[in-house]
């Protein structure tokens, strides 16, 4: 299991305390960035910088350790989609990554399946509709 370091916050629930890198398998033809916080390389490497804040697992669920890393990657990818830096067509890929990371981190497959279907059924707006606190687009090709 790969680890992330984070702390609790008031507005957002968590803040990353150390840079984190994850190989998403999402290959694109250019870099996408939210300057200072999130970058996705053409090779699919997602870099999330120390200081990035996210709201953790959403919906009718419990924030457990085996859900945190998945929620971090998922929230960063959804934010890139909301800012139109990634196409919304990658939403299912982000949802599958959430499920895979949760299983890697020890979540039982039944709960991971439940998490996957909840985001598939109820999280469309979170990937497409701008939200308060979203960072402005700083750099886009």
Summarize this entry quickly.
By secondary structure, this protein is α+β, with helices and mostly antiparallel strands.
Uncertain residue ranges: 136-141
Task: Give the amount of beta strand, in percent.
Answer: 15-25%
Order of helices and strands: EEEEEEEHHHH
Q: Give helix % range.
A: 25-40%
Mean pLDDT over all positions? 88
What characterizes the major β-sheet?
Answer: 4 strands, antiparallel
What does this structure look like?
- The chain is an alpha+beta fold and 141 residues long.
- It has one domain.
- The protein is built from 4 helices and 7 strands, in the order βββββββαααα.
- The protein has helices at residues 65-82, 91-104, 109-122, 124-128, and strands spanning 6-8, 14-16, 20-23, 32-34, 38-40, 45-48, 53-54.
- The strands form 2 sheets. It has a 4-stranded antiparallel β-sheet with strand order 3-6-5-4, with helices on one face. Strands 1-2-7 form a 3-stranded antiparallel β-sheet, with helices on one face.
- α1 packs antiparallel against α2 and α2 (91-104) runs antiparallel to α3 (109-122).
């Amino acid at each position: 299991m790969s680890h992330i370091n984070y702390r609790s916050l008031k507005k957002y629930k968590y803040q990353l305390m150390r840079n984190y890198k994850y190989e998403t398998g999402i290959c694109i033809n250019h870099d996408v960035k939210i300057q200072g916080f999130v970058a996705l390389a053409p090779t699919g490497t997602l870099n999330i910088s120390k200081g990035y804040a996210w709201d953790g697992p959403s919906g009718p669920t419990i924030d457990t350790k085996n859900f945190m890393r998945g929620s971090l990657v998922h929230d960063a990818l959804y934010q890139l989609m909301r800012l139109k830096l990634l196409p919304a067509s990658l939403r299912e890929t982000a949802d599958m990554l959430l499920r895979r990371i949760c299983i890697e981190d020890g979540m039982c497959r039944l709960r991971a399946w439940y998490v996957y279907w909840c985001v598939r059924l109820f999280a469309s707006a979170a990937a497409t509709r701008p939200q308060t606190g979203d960072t402005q687009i700083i750099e886009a090709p």
